[in-house]
Design a protein that fits this description.
By secondary structure, the chain is α/β, with parallel strands linked by helices. Helix content is 32%, strand content 25%. It is built from ten helices and twelve strands. The strands form three sheets. Strands 1, 2, 3, 4, 5, 6, 7 and 8 form an eight-stranded mixed beta sheet that branches. Strands 9-10 form a two-stranded antiparallel ribbon. A two-stranded antiparallel sheet has the order 11-12. α6 links the parallel β6 and β7. α6 runs parallel beside α9. It is globular and about 50 Å long. The two termini are 25 Å apart.
Length: 313
């Protein structure tokens, strides 16, 4: 999960960086791709020079270890180990990253000297997203449905209160678990509301993962419609929460592995198994490993706005 705190520092000097310091919490069922999401984001393989993302940098040693794990395990065709609910909240690994986005008006750099003064005024600062995130075990979500009064679950809920933003990851191929997800989400939101005395407005990003799969890839640019079609009950719970004043909701599609090719794309992953619980995969071609959509939900959770460039392939 991630914790987010907005902290904008503005300056008239366009060469300075606009900082946004945030803490996020990621929730989701086991196998939803939470650990792979964070690892791919931290590793940021085969960066696209045309991307709005300039750099992704590890801030602490735990994140550097995660980058090494992503490289050494995923690239060798093995699966990453998930997190363990037996850990106390103090033992859950807290990853820190710094993501720098390019200025949105950078095209002005190539305009002739006649508008250099305009460029100096209009060129925005680089945006730096400083994030701290924890990867909770998938059992945390399932146990919300089946366990009552568990002290460890209460500790996790208390930790969630530190976050302005929650990222809820769902394997897009696990749509048959929609009823379970909706029930778990409902209990999570009720428990959070009863625990929280600050009454802050939160944002929830519903993120459909594993969108390298063909049936998901074709709808990657319509995340809201995809969420409503694949997870109608969960979608309904999120919309009701938003309409009753709980906070803001938006929808995203991501792939930790990406695809191979553009005209005739295929998943850059090898399917290990697929069942009611979703799809388990490993990387197929590490040399062409390029994730999709990882930063878009983070930017929205920080700012409340969509970044069109981050929503592109």
């Amino acid at each position: 999960m991630f914790d987010w705190y907005k902290n904008k520092t503005k300056s008239s000097n366009p060469s300075e960086i606009l900082d946004q310091n945030s803490v996020v919490r990621i929730i989701g069922d086991r196998g939803s791709g939470k650990t792979a999401y964070i690892a791919s984001l931290a590793y940021w393989p085969n960066a696209d020079p045309s991307s709005a993302v300039q750099t992704v940098t590890s801030v602490n040693s735990l994140t550097e270890e995660l980058v090494a794990e992503a490289q050494n395990i995923l690239e060798q065709g093995l699966q990453m180990g998930g997190s363990d609910l037996n850990d106390s909240i103090g033992d859950v690994k807290d990853y820190s990253l710094s993501i720098v986005l390019k200025g949105q008006f950078s095209f002005l750099q190539n305009v002739n000297t006649a508008i250099k003064n305009v460029q100096a005024v209009m060129k925005p600062q680089l945006v730096k997203l400083n994030i701290s995130c924890k990867d909770y075990a998938g059992e945390f979500f399932a146990d919300l449905v089946h366990k009552v009064g568990d002290s460890k679950l209460q500790d996790y809920l208390e930790d969630c209160l530190l976050a302005n933003g929650i990222m809820f990851l769902a394997d897009g191929t696990a749509h048959r678990k929609d009823s379970e997800y909706a029930n778990g989400l409902d209990k999570f939101l009720i428990a959070l509301d009863r625990t929280d005395i600050s009454r802050i407005q939160r944002r929830i990003a519903f993120v459909i993962t594993k969108c390298e799969q063909a049936e998901l890839w074709v709808s990657r640019h319509n995340p809201r419609e995809l969420a409503q079609a694949r997870f109608p009950k969960t979608f309904g719970k999120l919309q009701a929460w938003q309409q009753t004043g709980g906070g803001q909701v938006d929808y995203f599609t991501t792939s930790a592995f990406g695809v191979l090719g553009s005209k005739y794309p295929e998943p850059n992953s090898v399917k290990i198994k697929r069942d009611r619980d979703g799809t388990s995969s490993c990387i197929k071609d590490p040399k062409r490993w390029r994730p999709f959509g990882l930063v878009a939900p983070i930017y929205w959770l920080c700012t409340g706005e969509r970044h069109k460039e981050l929503d592109k392939d």
